[in-house]
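$ ./design --mode recover --in tokens.txt
reading tokens...
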């Protein structure tokens, strides 16, 4: 009886995994490549956390641009006019400025440790006779990343809502947003573990 229940449970778990892989459009042949990517991610997270943090920030910006581009036709249909490049640029500038004005809440949420660490690196390079990078420039870059993240959440939410209204599968979009949140959390965790709190605390 116990063996039969175990077999039933294992079969149900396999079916759930197969269903999830199908929803994410992942084939069995992709699993070895995903395994290599995961192993590389773990390796570089331990040996070169700054590289992973940089790639993570770049991924946030890329996902933001991707979902913003997908949300543009939906917004155009709602407002009844064409969205131009300068409209997108204005949205990016506005979100960046919003993160700059609400500086303390933004820093309390994410990427504050990495931002402080980059400022310390810039100060160290300047003290060593290297080319100085203004701390305000670093702060602007991180506020731009935060603004891109806000645009990502807004655009993906609108796109997912539109997909649900049309009866299409909206779950892959939510999965990508969850991935973006996971990237942000992972960057903060890696920064805390290997760098410290960004205020002079050291990591490994």
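writing sequence...
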């Amino acid at each position: 009886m116990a063996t039969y229940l175990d077999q039933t449970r294992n079969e149900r778990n396999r079916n759930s995994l197969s269903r999830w892989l199908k929803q994410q459009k992942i084939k069995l042949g992709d699993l070895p490549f995903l395994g290599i990517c995961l192993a590389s991610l773990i390796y570089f997270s331990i040996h070169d956390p700054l590289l992973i943090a940089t790639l993570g920030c770049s991924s946030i910006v890329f996902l933001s641009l991707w979902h913003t581009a997908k949300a543009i036709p939906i917004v155009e249909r709602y407002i009844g006019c064409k969205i131009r490049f300068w409209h997108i640029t204005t949205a990016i500038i506005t979100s960046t400025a919003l993160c700059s004005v609400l500086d303390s809440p933004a820093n309390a949420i994410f990427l504050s440790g990495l931002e402080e660490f980059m400022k310390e690196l810039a100060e160290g390079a300047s003290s060593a006779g290297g080319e100085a990078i203004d701390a305000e420039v670093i702060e602007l870059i991180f506020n731009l990343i935060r603004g891109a993240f806000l645009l990502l959440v807004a655009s993906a939410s609108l796109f997912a809502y539109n997909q649900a209204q049309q009866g299409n599968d909206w779950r892959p979009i939510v999965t990508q947003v969850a991935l973006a949140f996971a990237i942000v959390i992972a960057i903060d965790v890696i920064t805390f573990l290997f760098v410290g709190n960004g205020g002079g605390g050291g990591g490994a």
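exit 0
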